[in-house]
Design goal:
This protein has 133 residues and is α/β, with parallel strands linked by helices. The chain has six helices and four strands.
């Protein structure tokens, strides 16, 4: 398809070997998107950064190909993808909503969390008896 000038999104790539096999057959004149499922790689217990970084390097052999960071799991992945030069990242809505917390003061976050735990305990009927007996 690539040789027929069809732009392809090759999806569900998990390994460097798979990526290398795809890169070999792509027509260098036809754009392509190579979707590496970084989030699912992370779900297997492996840090996907090395694979993603190598994928970006390998894709340079076919300059019209773009690496897509798929299966984003956390806000940090957006910054990781940018740092390694990943071309595209798909980000689910629930992760986009979390972007408002970027740069938030951690001391403030800690206090808000403790207050939330306290309110949850109160609403469950728990109380702290400070009277010593």
């Amino acid at each position: 398809m690539s040789n027929q000038k069809v732009i392809c999104n090759v999806t569900a790539i998990f390994t460097i070997k798979q990526l290398e096999e795809v890169i070999q057959i792509l027509n260098p004149e036809t754009p392509a998107i190579l979707s590496v499922f970084a989030g699912r790689i992370a779900d297997s217990g492996l840090d996907p950064i090395n694979i993603m970084q190598k994928a970006v390097e390998i894709s340079k052999a076919k300059p019209k190909s773009n690496i897509l960071w798929a299966s984003t799991r956390e806000v940090l992945n957006i910054f990781q993808a940018e740092k390694i030069g990943c071309h595209i990242i798909t980000v689910p809505h629930d992760i986009i909503k979390k972007l408002k917390g970027v740069g938030k003061n951690l001391e403030e976050s800690s206090l808000e969390t403790v207050k939330m735990f306290y309110e949850d305990a109160k609403s469950a009927g728990y109380k702290i008896d400070l009277d010593e007996k």
